[in-house]
Amino acid sequence: MKISIQVSLFFIVLLSSIELTFGQSSPTILIAYYSETGKTQSMAEAVANGVNEIGEVDFILKPISEVKTEELLNASAIILGSPVYNGNVAPQMQEFINSWPFEGRPLTDKIGAVFVTGGGFSIGEEAVLMSMIRSMMIHGLIIVGGDSVESAFGASAITGEGDFAEKEVQEIFLKKAEGLGRRIGVIVANK
Ligand SMILES: Cc1cc2nc3c(=O)[nH]c(=O)nc-3n(C[C@H](O)[C@H](O)[C@H](O)COP(=O)(O)O)c2cc1C
């Protein structure tokens, strides 16, 4: 009798620990970017640093070419980054979004957010933020901006004009990206 109670207790503890291990995995934020010369990648890494500060959520950080459909479907939030090409989103990023599953709108109600890098001031960066936001809204995502009025539509960096030319992405822009990541992290952690 005593042995069978002990065996039952053992299985109860085992099942509880399995539930704890597999039933309570942290929500994940997917940070996906396109980058030819590394500037948008630097912003993506800053977004990830911001998410990391929150601690309660996982993130996947990768170029769009490596993103799997299941990673999109499993993510609680999707954060996209693109450079500005001739006033538009990089065509690779648009193709990526166009490849998302649409039937039944399986991405509906995930959090969506965006960041860009552009060579110059007001020659496309806001248009590209808005372009990605529009596409995400077609898929039913809930759009969230950055953590300051200067990143209201998402985080942006100027990489090629005046003092910002031929340098690493500057701290003032990386801070916006970090703030975006932190904000999405807090929202996802409390969702
Ligand atoms: C083909 C091409 C077109 C570009 N067109 C624009 C543009 O219209 N407006 C702009 O601000 N920057 C433009 N840029 C500059 C890039 O957006 C900028 O250098 C960006 O930071 C590059 O990001 P990456 O290092 O992640 O590739 C263009 C760059 C290339 C290569």
What is the compact description of this entry?
With 191 residues, this protein is an alpha/beta fold.
Indicate the mean pLDDT. Answer: 91
Strand percentage lies at 15-25%
Low-confidence stretches: 12-21
Q: How many runs of DSSP E, i.e. beta strands?
A: 7
Please give the largest β-sheet. 7 strands, mixed
Q: How much is the radius of gyration in Å?
A: 20 Å
Q: Which series of helices and strands comes N to C?
A: HEHEHEEHEHEEH
Q: What number of domains? A: 1
Shape: globular
Q: Find the CATH topology.
A: Rossmann fold
Helical stretch count? 6
Helical percent range? 40-55%
CATH class: Alpha Beta
Distance between the termini: 46 Å
The distinct bound ligands, ions and cofactors come out as:
flavin mononucleotide
Based on the structure given, which CATH architecture is correct?
Answer: 3-Layer(aba) Sandwich
Structural class: alpha/beta
CATH superfamily: Flavodoxin domain
Domain Flavodoxin-like: 29-181
Pfam family, one: FMN_red
Protein name: Flavodoxin family protein
InterPro entries: Flavodoxin/NO_synth, Flavoprotein-like_sf, FMN_Rdtase-like_dom
Explain how this protein is built.
- The chain contains six helices and seven strands, in the order αβαβαββαβαββα.
- With 191 residues, the chain is α/β, with parallel strands linked by helices.
- The protein has one domain: Flavodoxin domain (Rossmann fold, 3-Layer(aba) Sandwich).
- Helix 5 links the parallel strand 5 and strand 6.
- Helix 2 packs across helix 6.
- The longest helix is centred in the first third of the chain and has 22 residues.
- The protein is globular.
- The termini are far apart.
